[in-house]
């Protein structure tokens, strides 16, 4: 069944910054300092977040991923911080936090391979989000010499693990910011089978330079995804949010010719949207938002 942009299930995934509040502020109120790229999980009466902390290039880039917990989904206490150095990475990008059926947790980390444009994804496991240990990790999405892989979005549905990852071409360093979202499945969340590109930008439009899936909802026979898009290399770091839909998780199509949500500041960046279903009903949206001073903050809103 096709879904239109006026469908309430689509509306529930589109941010409205005017009704949001700050969940995590950046380290400093300056351009190049960011808190965002979050992955959210509701469990045990709390909302858990894994999010990336970034400084300007030359001062650390994506220098850490923080794990945090909140009783209300707004005020968070930091449980753990993992540095890029601990992961042998030049930078860390968006993580993916997953609660397993047996009560354990996984943290998938996007790691920049030192001295290259390459990205890989490694996974850590723990019995509690405060106990992830970078010394015990495994590469699950290695990429290859021609492709960098990062920013996984993971959804478990029945016995199948679904994954969408941002994939970047590496043959030409000047083109390495280009991105498409490839789709994979797994029986255990560790060994993945790729099924090709699920979403790419539309030539000549706002997402022509790249399309990165950030959250996915299965709605009956339909699939609804939010994604980040940009039209040029100059818009790197200032992507806006769009919506794509389809009936096959391996083949999604942008719903509209314009972004669904933007910031009024800077380059308009409103990106890395995640959606968490709350146990008592409703949902929370989390996203990275460009401020008037050029910094990025992590915002949330309740639906």
Sequence of secondary-structure elements: HEEEEEEEEEEEEEEEEEEEE
Strand content: over 45%
CA gyration radius, whole angstroms = 17 Å
* Tally of DSSP β-strands: 20
Helix content: under 10%
* End-to-end distance: 24 Å
Mean pLDDT: 96
General shape: globular
Largest sheet: 4 strands, antiparallel
Which blocks of ≥5 consecutive residues have pLDDT under 50? Answer: none
**What is the count of helical runs?**
1
Q: Give the class from helix and strand content and strand pairing.
A: mainly beta
How does this structure look, described?
There is one protein chain. The strands form five sheets. The chain has a four-stranded antiparallel sheet with strand order 1-20-19-18, with no helix packed on it. Strands 2-3-4-5 form a four-stranded antiparallel sheet, with no helix packed on it. Strands 6-7-8-9 form a four-stranded antiparallel sheet, with no helix packed on it. A hairpin with a 6-residue loop joins strand 12 (180-186) and strand 13 (193-199). It is built from one helix and 20 strands. By secondary structure, it is mainly β.
Features of this protein?
single chain, 303 residues, mainly beta, 1 helix, 20 strands, 51% strand, globular
């Amino acid at each position: 069944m096709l879904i239109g942009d006026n469908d309430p299930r689509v509306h529930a995934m589109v941010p409205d910054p005017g009704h949001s509040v700050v969940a995590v502020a950046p380290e400093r109120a300056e351009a190049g300092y960011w808190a965002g790229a979050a992955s959210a999980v509701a469990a045990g009466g709390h909302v858990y977040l894994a999010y990336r902390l970034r400084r300007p290039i030359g001062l650390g880039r994506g220098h850490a991923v923080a794990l945090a917990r909140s009783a209300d989904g707004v005020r968070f206490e930091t449980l753990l911080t993992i540095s890029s150095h601990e992961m042998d990475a030049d930078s860390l990008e968006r993580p993916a936090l997953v609660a397993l059926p047996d009560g354990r947790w996984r943290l998938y980390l996007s790691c920049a391979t030192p001295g290259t444009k390459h990205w890989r994804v490694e996974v850590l496991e723990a019995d509690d989000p405060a106990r992830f240990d970078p010394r015990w990790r495994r590469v699950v999405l290695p990429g290859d010499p021609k492709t960098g892989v990062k920013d996984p979005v993971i959804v478990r549905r029945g016995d199948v693990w679904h994954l969408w990852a941002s994939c970047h071409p590496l043959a030409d360093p000047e083109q390495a910011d280009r991105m498409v979202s490839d789709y994979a499945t797994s029986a255990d969340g560790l060994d993945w089978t790729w099924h090709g590109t699920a979403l790419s930008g539309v030539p000549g439009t706002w997402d022509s330079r790249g399309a990165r899936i950030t959250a996915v909802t299965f709605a009956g026979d339909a699939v609804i995804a939010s994604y980040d898009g940009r039209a040029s290399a100059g818009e790197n770091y200032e992507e806006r949010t769009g919506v794509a839909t389809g009936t096959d998780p391996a083949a999604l199509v942008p719903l509209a010719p314009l972004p669904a949500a933007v910031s009024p500041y800077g380059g308009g960046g409103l990106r890395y949207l995640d959606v968490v279903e709350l146990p008592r009903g409703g949902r929370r949206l989390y996203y990275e938002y460009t401020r008037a001073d050029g910094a990025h903050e992590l915002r949330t809103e309740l639906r």
